[in-house]
Amino acid sequence: MGDLASDYDALIESIIKGYRRLHTHDPDHELLQYITKVTDQSFEYVRDKSEAFLDRFKTPDKKLEDVKMIKVLASYFIALSDAIDKIEGKDPSPKLNQSASFTPIKTLEDLPF
């Protein structure tokens, strides 16, 4: 993880990619109503939807305003990703590899190196 500014930039980039991907599947999806004027580097919030956006994606937190906004945007990105997975029929839950065998490590001598 980098500094707050680079994390923010990466999150914006991820939201833009998710927005565009969801738009190709369902241009009328309700999650697309919250942002507009999407470019390769930025987007704008839809003015009359900004309160609904914050109410839907905010997290209970008493941190700095910048951190709160990043958490709101992260929640929005997760919702976009979940919507895409649902449309594409993907199950994002982790799967156990049934064919893998595990040997418990009890001492340092059990390590393979």
Q: Your description of this structure?
A:
With about 110 residues, the chain is mostly helical. About 50% of the residues lie in helices and about 5% in strands. Strands 1-2 form a two-stranded antiparallel sheet. β1 and β2 form a beta hairpin. The radius of gyration is 19 Å and the shape is extended.
Give the topology, please.
Elements: H1 4-25, E1 35-36, E2 44-45, H2 50-57, H3 65-88
Antiparallel strand pairs: 1-2
**Low-pLDDT residue intervals, each spanning 5 or more residues:** none
Percentage beta strand: under 5%
Helicity level, as a percent range? 40-55%
Oligomer: single chain
The total tally of domains equals 1
Instruction: Indicate the radius of gyration in whole angstroms.
Output: 19 Å
Q: Treating each run of at least 4 consecutive H or I residues as one helix, how many helices?
A: 3
Query: For the largest beta sheet, what order do the strands appear in spatially?
Result: 1-2
β-strand number: 2
* End-to-end CA span: 28 Å
Order of helices and strands: HEEHH
Question: What value does the average pLDDT take?
Answer: 82
Structural class: mainly alpha
| Overall outline | extended
